[in-house]
Structure prediction request, 198 residues.
Amino acid sequence: MTLEEIRSRLEAFVPGCHAEIVVNGSPSAQNSLLIDRRHGLQTAMYLRDHPELQLDFCSNVTAVDWPDREETETIKTRKIVDGVEKEVEETKKTTIPGYLEVVYHLFSIAKKEGPVVLRMHTANRTDDVTLQSLTPVWRSAEFQEREAFDLFGIVFEGHPDLRRILMWEGFTDHPMRKDYVPPPDDDLELLAVSKPGA
Prediction:
């Protein structure tokens, strides 16, 4: 089944689901399916349980930090300059809000097919960073979602054991975010000495 067929079926069979194909321009040309975050769990169950898909194995979960970015657009307008109407160019800058993204690579062991790449975005990078956990559908996602929680700060709603996996409890930052600034070495030594169990 093509990615376009999967997208169409998802929108038809998962009420309210919005899915779009993300084109990958790299040599791998491995396009992916971006799912709205409110329907992640329903989508996952559909992909696993549909007899033509049987995507029964999640091999990899990773995350990406997309900070705010600025787009610059040049607009031509007509204005009165020194009493004469002229065409002038103006620059318009727009800030595109950032978000965190989680990416799942899915395979069908039963049908020996895949991968199907599934993506979801948080609303932003600050106060609305919750996504539905897909661990209840693919148990192999458990530790990898914990890693994305730990290193990127994505909160997986419905995860059975969401706690840090690489950094210690009490560590307050997310080291894989693009704006992360590591503390000086002296501070890290103090943190390591003061952390429980060190």
